[in-house]
Amino acid sequence: MISDKVKLTAKDILEKEFKSGMRGYKPEDVDKFLDLIIKDYETFHQEIEELQQENMRLKKQAEGASKRPVAQPQASGTTNFDILKRLSNLEKHVFGNKLYD
Length: 101
Prior knowledge:
By secondary structure, this protein is mainly alpha-helical. It has one domain (2-100). Helix content is 62%, strand content 0%. It has helices spanning 10-15, 27-67, 80-95. The protein starts with 9 loop residues before the first helix and ends in a 6-residue tail after the last helix.
C-alpha cells in the first residue's frame, strides 16, 4: 500500500519545528510554503483513498462478472439441411421444375 511508503503526513509537516540560525529564512515564508504542502498532502491522500476504494469496487465487480455464466448464442433451429431444402424449393419456384426433370 502506498501509505506504507510515505514518510510524512500533513500533521508531521504542520508540527515540524525548525531551529533558527543567524542567516535563516523568514519563518513566515516557510510557514506559508509548508501550508501549501500540507494542503497538497491532504488532497493527495484523499485522492489515493478514493482511487483505492474505486479499485476495490471494480475488482469486486470484475469477480462477480467472471462468476456469472456467459450467455450462449441461441441456435435458430435451422440446420444446413433445412437451408438446402428451402433453397431447393425456391429454385423450383423461380426456375420451375425444368431444373429437376
